[in-house]
Amino acid sequence: MLSIELLIKNGRIITVDNNGTDIESGWIAINDGRILAAGSGKDHEKLYAADKIIDATGKVVFPGLINTHTHLFQTLLKGLGRDKPLIEWLDASVRNALPFYDEETCYYAALVGCLESVHSGTTTVLDFMYANTRPKLTDAVIKAFDTVGVRGIMGRGFTNVAGLPKANFCELIDTVPNFLADTERLLHEYPADQSDMISICLAPGIIWDLNREEFQAVRQFADKYKLPVTMHIVETEDDDAFSLDVNKKRTIEFLDEIGFFGPDVISVHSVYMQSGDIEIFKKHDVKVSYCPTSNMILASGFAPIREFMKEGITVCLASDGAASNDSQDMIETMKNAALLQKVFYRDASVVSAYDVLKMATINGAIALGKEKHLGSIEAGKKADLFIFNPMTAKTMPMNEPVAALVYSAGEENVDTMIINGKVIMENKKILTVDEEAILKEAAAVGARLRKKAGI
Ligand SMILES: [Zn+2]
Question: What is the pLDDT of residues 41-53, one digit of tens each?
Fold first, then answer.
């Protein structure tokens, strides 16, 4: 008998492996942050002595969801600037609040976002942190990942703050050299370790934030340190209007011409794809982070997911920030991801529930370059998974588990959460922090921020 830390038994297991293996009643042996083995029936009884056993009878085990794009600092801005178009929304929320962010506001905003992530089945979050109005605000988000126990990909973001209202209030006027130097600092302060709980990537904001030489500097930096690069690309028509004016080429043509693209690029939104753009993405194996809820709230439009899938482009899923979503709920995101495409193409079969589950798990892992460790329930991978309890009126009877998760479920069905082999939440109770105390403090911190910003 092998001594192990954790065993899950008697659960249905949707592995999302290459063969789509669905184990009717099975077990998962977990030790030292990883899945040691998984199987069906009662084989585990002869093999393992576990410190802790979770009986998942009547429940379903899914790989943890991977949110490939959010801005956790925005979590305190829920509901502000709602029902306004993009630019008016920005002025009514994010732009005015930005200069007033400090470490405390970033930390509490990120804590709330991490808590919601865990409740909705999310084990990994890529945070696109462009609110660098003071030094080291990025570190406050990393601290929140660590406090709650969420696997974090910290996208050190860059936005050109010169155009923002009240920009003079910013203690730090971020520049591209500073952006890259700070990313280098983060790489040294949060070095890669075996747990891989925190890793770093580059997040240049949008086409108008950098010029040709600056984009090329980002590319060289990414090559040097082998980091993913993520950027907002053609969320609205404004990107191409700007790029045609300044760069004399459309956004994606320009970025192609200057050698910016590669398989390490995660293009966020990718709504206004023009003729030839998909071919460029395909040529460089660019990944697409699809943010359906945000695209609907801001009325940005439809990303052409069917065409991306047809061309073999990896599509992953994301909530986007709470300022343009009001939620970090990846279960809701999955449902919206499917429904928006069905309406767009007027074809109910265009994206299936299983396609969407793959987008939210293994495709996210591929986009992050972490598919060897994340995205499915397989021996050797990180033990990042959640246990789904279908026993609610909304999901019962559960005729098909993947359809139940994507179309009928809510966070009330996420019962237990395991990240890096550690039980973060059990029976819907978060074990790592005092959730109620954090929510109350975050409301107070948020109220002070709104008062200072006059929003
Ligand atoms: Zn965004």
Answer: 999 999 999 999 9
